[in-house]
Design a protein that fits this description.
The complex is a heterodimer of chains A (84) and B (136). Chain A is of the alpha+beta class. Chain A has a single domain, classed as Phosphoribosylformylglycinamidine synthase subunit PurS (Mth169, Chain: A). Chain A has a three-stranded antiparallel beta sheet, covered by helices on one side. Chain B has 136 residues and is of the alpha/beta class. Chain B has one domain: 3-Layer(aba) Sandwich (Rossmann fold). The longest helix of chain B is centred in the middle third of the chain and has 11 residues. Chain B starts with a strand and ends in a 14-residue tail after the last strand.
Chain lengths: 84, 136
């Protein structure tokens, strides 16, 4: 079984209230060195056999349609996952 | 609106479809139930996408409902001029379908009162045209 990783992040120019809330909570735990947090999404897509170029193309298309909304999010990465 | 046939789409997780149907009947129209899994608008004159939490708001609110079989017909009908009303989650489905410009993002304020308005509006600022649904 092969796996493909798709990473989606909110667009940089867009406010990320989730990341901002996390950034506000970190200093309360003593983590005061982090100046900003942005929160995105990571998808793991599994295929039956080894990952092929066609699988990666399909994952890229899925990333641009269902997995992300191009108005507010960017697809950062579509790559084959390393073996566990 | 006497005699108008108004379709009301039910998705998994729709909550207000019965309320919408009642409102249509009280207004003198015929409420026609439409099922998310059937690509059939049953000859309606207008469509309501009701509120609720389609697919549990997973991924993004409205994002999975947008790809339901009935939605291809709704998008085609809307582009052909059919009136479509999206209420609450239905509005979010219309945004994800790119029938309305913009997208919904989370609120910036973290006060408990934010539960009454759990999203914010963002119009597209991309240089190009609004992205079209795939295959169009």
């Amino acid at each position: 079984m092969g796996r493909i990783i798709v990473e989606v992040m909110p667009k940089p120019e867009l406010l990320d209230p989730q990341g901002k809330a996390v950034a506000g909570a970190l200093p309360r735990l003593g983590f005061d060195q982090f100046t900003a947090v942005r929160q995105g999404k990571l998808f793991e897509l599994t295929v039956a056999g080894d990952v092929t170029e066609a699988d990666l193309d399909a994952a890229g298309q899925a990333a641009g349609t269902l997995l992300s909304n191009p108005i507010i999010e960017d697809v950062i990465r579509v790559v084959e996952a390393e073996q566990r | 609106m006497t005699g108008a046939r108004v379709g009301i789409v039910t998705f998994p997780g729709s909550l207000d479809d019965r309320d919408a149907a009642r409102a249509v009947r009280l207004s003198g129209g015929d409420a026609v139930p439409l099922w998310h899994g059937e690509a059939d608008l049953k000859g309606v004159d207008a469509i309501i996408l009701p509120g609720g939490f389609s697919y549990g708001d997973y991924l993004r609110a409205g994002a999975i409902a947008r790809f339901a079989p009935v939605m291809d017909r709704v998008v085609d009908a809307a582009r052909g001029g059919m009136p479509v009303l999206g209420i609450c989650n239905g509005f979010q489905v219309l945004c994800e379908s790119h029938l309305l410009p913009g997208a919904l993002i989370r609120n910036d304020h973290h006060s408990s009162s934010a539960v009454t308005s759990s999203c914010a509006w963002r119009t597209p600022t991309l240089p190009g045209p609004t992205p079209s649904p795939p295959g169009r």
